[in-house]
């Protein structure tokens, strides 16, 4: 029998989900990460093979299993060398099966919009957006934290630090932000932030991204400066969305995933304000692994 | 006889200038840097002593020389440990003479405004502003390139990179900027900027600051995006100035030094637009070493 398999290979785990021709999920499993920048070639192959074996074991009543696979793998982007490495791993792992490789953003987009054409904004530690329109995929943002990642948790955390310095100097009006940051980071003096940045933060992407949680706490207490940071983040994200939505003839569906969206209306409300009227913002419908299945189904359905 | 000595101790050189009671410059010399973060204690002492000896040699007709010194030294700021180290060096170097220690920003301010109260904006690789009002000194900005240094060459260089990514994505309208940056940095593909940033720039403060020269070239050719970067830089610098000018009762004199100002009207014109009407912007009148002399003269004149 024919089965459609979605694989979501991210930085922390590899998720597998198997659907039958009646679109019922008949098997799934989660293994460790197969990210090419985190594990070697042999390990990646072993994880992908193992996942398929587990799915097959769940289907042991069926003696003639045909898998049609879509693997959405982190790292499968613009870098040609990485693409080749991933293609070689998949060739080895999926032989005897038909398959297609996407990057993790494309399957997340398919999942969030349930296979519809549209745009997905991923805003976690970094930020990037993907669009799919009539089989054609584009991206915007996602240049990394050194150059941009506008509206990401890193970007929001950095804005918090900058707002702190501006309030300390009297460039911006003081809100509760300075005292809140000082207490949270255990700074004695305003200027201790300089040594804290040099010795503790050290431009560490993850540590600065975590500071976004402080912005969230402050914004919940209605701190004007924190709300302004979310407003600026929303404006940057709207800019990313509009750069992609220009290609859409009429209305354009947009969804979102990633840690920044946990701030809910704090980021969603200003975003709606900045978005053109042809944009329809939707909560994400299904997880990325389901998006991978959808792509496999639409491509290979018999 | 009494002489007033100005010393400007920066990161690249130490300048000495000696004036008599008739305000005539009677001796000067330039030695290497005595910056406490660049040379050890003994070396710093030897440079400062040597400078005074050279001045004294020029005054050999005078057998009863009294020096009244103002030393404006880089590093003499908020850091208590550094302050102590510098004070100990000066105690050893200037014994038998009356002296006062300032930081290099304060003497630059005194020089630029010829001893008048007001504000000096220093915008080179980094940025900071100092104000002097009735003997009281304040600062704004200058939190370092990780946190701010708004309007500095580093900040302008970073904005260029961000504008490049936004134009590549179609978030901002394309100008000549992308092709100009690609040619200047010898990038083949738009996305080569990512590896250029990771492998060549490596968040190196000096290298990114040098990119400000490209913004200058583009702005001279009337590139809209480059002009917008200068406009944003000017708005940030205006914010720094206003945070200090609030304390001034009426009009407030402001001057400027540092590499960014070589852009002349490209930065000065938008700055004038953003400045309050009580601000009087003046070209810098004298160099920092003259400012140090002025402070010594005003403090110690007999």
UniProtKB/TrEMBL annotation, chains A, B:
Taxonomy, top ranks, is: Bacteria, Bacillati, Bacillota, Erysipelotrichia, Erysipelotrichales
Q: Name the source organism.
A: Amedibacterium intestinale
This chain's protein is named: Acyl-CoA reductase
Q: Which Pfam families match?
A: BcrAD_BadFG (PF01869)
Residue stretches making up the ATPase BadF/BadG/BcrA/BcrD type domain: 5-296
């Amino acid at each position: 029998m024919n089965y459609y398999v979605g694989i979501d290979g991210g930085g922390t785990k590899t998720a597998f989900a198997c659907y039958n021709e009646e679109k019922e999920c008949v098997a799934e499993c989660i293994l460790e990460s197969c990210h090419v920048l985190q594990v070697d070639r042999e390990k990646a192959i072993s994880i992908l093979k193992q996942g398929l074996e587990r799915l097959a074991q769940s289907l042991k009543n069926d003696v003639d299993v045909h898998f049609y696979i879509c693997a959405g793998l982190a790292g499968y982007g613009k870098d040609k060398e990485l693409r080749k490495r991933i293609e070689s791993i998949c060739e080895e792992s999926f032989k005897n099966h038909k398959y297609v490789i996407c990057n993790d953003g494309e399957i997340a987009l398919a999942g969030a919009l349930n296979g519809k054409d549209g745009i997905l904004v991923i805003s976690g530690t970094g930020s990037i957006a993907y669009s799919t329109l009539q089989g054609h995929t584009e991206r915007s943002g996602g240049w990394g934290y050194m150059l941009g990642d506008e509206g990401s948790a890193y970007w929001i955390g950095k804005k918090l630090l900058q707002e702190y310095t501006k309030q300390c100097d009297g460039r911006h009006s003081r809100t509760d932000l300075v005292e809140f940051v000082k207490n949270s980071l255990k700074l004695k003096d305003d200027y201790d932030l300089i040594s804290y940045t040099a010795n503790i933060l050290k431009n560490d992407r993850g540590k600065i991204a975590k500071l976004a949680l402080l912005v969230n706490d402050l914004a919940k207490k209605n701190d004007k400066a924190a709300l302004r940071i979310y407003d600026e983040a929303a404006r940057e994200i709207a800019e990313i969305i509009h750069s992609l939505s220009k290609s859409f003839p009429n209305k354009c569906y947009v969804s979102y995933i990633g840690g920044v969206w946990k701030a809910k209306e704090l980021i969603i409300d200003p975003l709606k304000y900045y978005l053109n009227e042809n944009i329809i913002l939707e909560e994400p419908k299904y997880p990325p692994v389901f998006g991978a299945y959808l792509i496999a189904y639409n491509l290979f359905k018999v």
